[in-house]
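anyone seen this seq b4? input:
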Amino acid sequence: MLRHILLATGLVCATFSQADEQLKRLNLPAGYEINYFAKNVENARQLAVSKSGVVYAGSRRAGNVYALIDNNQDGIADRKIVLAQGLNMPSGLALKDGDLYVGEVHRIIRFKNIDKQLSKPNYEVVFDKLPSERHHGWKFIRFNDEGELLIPVGVPCNVCAEDAQFGRIFSLNLQTKQLTTIAQGVRNSVGFDINPQSGALWFSDNGRDMMGDDIPPDEINRVSLNGEHFGFPYVHGGSVLDPEFGKDKTLADMQKYTAPKLALQAHVAPLGIHFYRGKQFAKNMHNKLLVAEHGSWNRSTKVGYRVMMATIKEGEITAYEPFITGFLDKEQTLGRPVAFAELADGSLLVSDDFANAIYRVRYNKK
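predicted toks r here
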């Protein structure tokens, strides 16, 4: 049974009361509470947390990279630093060995030893061979267990012919500067995570537009082998042939492509996904896959605008249930969840690029 959570407090660059209207509308399972970790973080997208607890956030249209510092460790950021401005959709970021990597549309940049350079941040370009097309060009990045940087490159269109530069998730070796195709036939992935139990890469994918309100499905996928093809532009959601690029395909052809582990409702726009690793939440949440449904933009009635949780058993999704709802009031958009990160105490951060906020979710064991 869901319940309303009414918890808010003063924050960096903003003052707001306990009756904050946004938090009043958000619903979580019983026992969970939600607060603001930070407000006024324009267009907050992917998050990363350093070992010292600094929270970094990218953005898309704002062009900024932020550092958020909780000096007194009360779960609320006290200070916001803009590390860089005017970047090319710096949506994706990741930390490795104390360095902050930022994915722009056309390149990867790095802030070395970032926690110790907050007063005078500067960056260097580490890879600049990515396509410059901005349509589906914003990034979500993450390091894999081998230390290579996973980088998606979405297609520069609604639907178009295959091209070796686009519609893929690549792995970048930072020493050799070589790109390896991890997954292809991927229209626009803006979220992935590695299952800590199996080591398998899971990713979200946004389906094509202009086929109506209810097709094709959006997708949650699992990579079983490098170079696996997930169907775009021929087959969408494992079951819907594209009217242009799939018109000559047969059922046998469709079966050559990997079907999603979960076909979602069309247009819910899954972005960040995250396996919960912490111990602060209830035990039944351990290793749940959280999915940020960013929400539709071109559907006659809106769908998505929520955080979901998937149960995975033996590589299959056995349940898909709401975790945070209330970002949509009938047809009025109140928020659009994007991505996740965990703090050291196991509480969960959720970014919202519509409300310009980062929420903190924790389990109240009382």
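The longest strand covers residues 316-324. The two ends are 17 Å apart (CA to CA). kinda curious what u guys think
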